[in-house]
Amino acid sequence: MHSLFYFTISDFMNNELIKYLAGFITNNRFERFNEVIEYRTRYITIILEDIYQPHNASAVLRSCECFGVQDVHIIENNNKYSVNPDVALGSNKWLDIIKYNTLKNNTVSAIKQIKKKGYRIVATTPQINKVNLDNFDIKKGKVALLFGTELNGLSDEALNLADEFLNIPMFGFTESFNISVTVAIILKTLIYKLHHSNIIWKLSKKEREDLKLKWLKNSIKNSDFLIKNYKKKNNNISIF
Amino acid sequence: MHSLFYFTISDFMNNELIKYLAGFITNNRFERFNEVIEYRTRYITIILEDIYQPHNASAVLRSCECFGVQDVHIIENNNKYSVNPDVALGSNKWLDIIKYNTLKNNTVSAIKQIKKKGYRIVATTPQINKVNLDNFDIKKGKVALLFGTELNGLSDEALNLADEFLNIPMFGFTESFNISVTVAIILKTLIYKLHHSNIIWKLSKKEREDLKLKWLKNSIKNSDFLIKNYKKKNNNISIF
After folding, report:
1. Do A174 and B67 touch (CB under 8 A)?
2. Interval B59-106: pLDDT, tens
3. Which of B177, B183, B192 to mutate to test the interface with A (most CBs of A within 10 A)?
4. CA–CA separation, A84 vs B136, rounded Å?
5. Among B39, B134, B150, beta carbon nearest to A171
6. Is the ipTM of this complex over 0.90?
7. Residues of B in contact with A201 (CB under 8 A)
8. Residue ranges of domains in chain A, CATH in brackets
9. pTM value?
């Protein structure tokens, strides 16, 4: 009962804070936030294992942002994930990027954490031909798409933890697509399936508010100062 | 009558030459040629105007090869098209790459030549929202997809010559995909539509033989010497 009560207050406070901060961006901008948030999803997520070419890393973020995939999980073992701003075009600012880099090998720990959140781990590898992308069943549950490095693909640890394997139909001599191309083709196909399904894939009310607050903070100069001031003013406010 | 007669002889000669050269590669390799050639098409082609980042140029070639798109037209005005071998993975060896670089500005001349071959010119630009990719009618005729530079997109000359405009549905703040990603998403969608249509999209018998000969030449060391020798030996052969 207590936690529900507190949640309601914090919820109300968030809403008020959003209204307050929205006053510091243009109406058009805030409307755009509301439009974009309608297409945000955590039903599909991306896990990148040790991607090392900045133009690939950046193009992947850009595709996720364009398709509304909110969370991107980055496993850094041997390679630090760096972004090329000319390719990413600021898309990383709108996403939740979750990094796994505290251990010597972060793959197992990262995938297990994501599995605990209810995701089926779907590895994409041209070597193992299991499910053709066009036949992939999006309705079976939340999907975390796992992609490996440019040169060697996924590690054995990652492959062992995968629940399913996915491949893109190919018709030439070349046996794989470029990594950023692979991500984009799969997202295009699965997001289309998702939007045309009756799955509940949109963010919850709470998730939307948290995200809107985050976007506002990222879009307003000195937002920390504004929020501090706002909270000070409203500290003694009587809510009911 | 005469030209038909000569064509028949040259056709027969080509076929014999293919058989001869096939003896210099493994059976598996030659079988792969026959498999891949079944999925080659000139119903869809690609025109790249002034792409300058080698990783993009290379990823585009790789995607074309994987999807069976045989011809890639490269317009070089300000930028020379160079390939990054780590990204292209040799895919350019299997394609027909047609370059337009003799004039100061090659765009108009290139597009007009391609139009003459019966292609509808379809420009991809996020600024002009005309036909959504998912609704694009593949049955209306051969398609040449026109893509512009990384920074500024297509030139005015190119846009003026376009017959149709295509856009990929996008749901985020970022207003465009990376160029190699754009090409891949469009090809994935249109090749799927093509394979599931009743359009005659495969290469003709003559085109297949020419291509097979080209692939054999590219795959065999000293193929020029072998062909010269073969022709010398068979010069006085009586065909009928």
Report:
1. no
2. 899 999 999 999 999 999 887 777 777 767 778 889 999 999 999 899
3. B177
4. 33
5. B39
6. no
7. none
8. 2-36+204-233 (no CATH), 41-195 (3.40.1280.10)
9. 0.89
